[in-house]
UniProtKB/TrEMBL annotation:
Name used for this protein in its record: carbonic anhydrase
Gene3D superfamilies: Carbonic anhydrase (3.40.1050.10)
Reactions performed catalytically: hydrogencarbonate + H(+) = CO2 + H2O
Family: Belongs to the beta-class carbonic anhydrase family.
Zinc is among the record's keywords: yes
Listed SUPFAM superfamilies: beta-carbonic anhydrase, cab (SSF53056)
Organism for this UniProt entry: Paenibacillus chitinolyticus
């Protein structure tokens, strides 16, 4: 049985038995917060459990490394929509130790892409179009600095209110322990490397 067939078969039984009823809620987060965190598999259930979150408590945005890599990309758009349209009053950026984005090397990624059939001509076309794949596919050296960088982009965003609390935390992916890097109630931007985030 294929993966998608297995999923659809389970889903049919899930709906037929009305198991969804225990998860019914609205689109508005009960705890009025939006979380940006990593897509790491270890956090799927651990992060909500470690934070005492139930279905409906929070908006959760996931991407590799919990990074805001561009001030007008899809991550920032999601945060802005959560704040203005979905009643989120606080933002939490939560990275984690042992993140796959730590030390991510673009050449290794592109080498694997070539092995899977992506042609050099495609990479050349992207490069000639002004897309810097090396920068785009490079991770970070230290998770704490990466979280602070994302926090600063959000705190300094021209479309967000200056008094919006933006917090930065790092989670242990084995125990769920959270370490607070920066608390956002004073809304004071945290210093970071201006070359890394020139749009701040």
């Amino acid at each position: 049985m294929s993966l998608i067939s297995e999923i659809l078969n389970y889903n049919e039984a899930f709906v037929d038995s009305k198991e969804y009823e225990q998860y019914l809620t609205t689109k508005f987060p009960d705890k009025r917060m939006v979380i940006l965190t990593c897509m790491d598999t270890r956090l799927v259930e651990l992060l909500p459990k470690a934070m005492n979150l139930r279905n409906g408590d929070s908006k959760i945005i996931k991407n590799a490394g919990a990074l805001v890599s561009h001030p007008f990309g899809s991550i920032m758009r999601s945060i802005i929509v959560a704040v203005y349209e979905l009643d989120a009053d606080e933002v939490l950026v939560i990275g984690h130790r042992d993140c796959g984005m730590t030390g991510l090397n673009s050449e290794k990624v592109l080498s694997k892409a070539r092995e899977r059939g992506v042609q050099n001509e495609v990479l050349d076309t992207l490069h000639n179009s002004g897309i810097n794949l090396d920068k785009w596919l490079t991770g970070f050296e230290q998770i704490d600095e990466a979280v602070i960088g994302s926090v600063n982009i959000i705190r300094n965003h021209p479309l967000l209110p200056k008094n919006l609390p933006v917090h930065g935390l790092v989670m242990n992916p084995q125990t769920g322990k959270l370490d607070l890097l920066t608390e956002g109630y004073d809304a004071t931007p945290v210093k970071t490397n201006p070359e890394e985030f020139p749009f701040i």
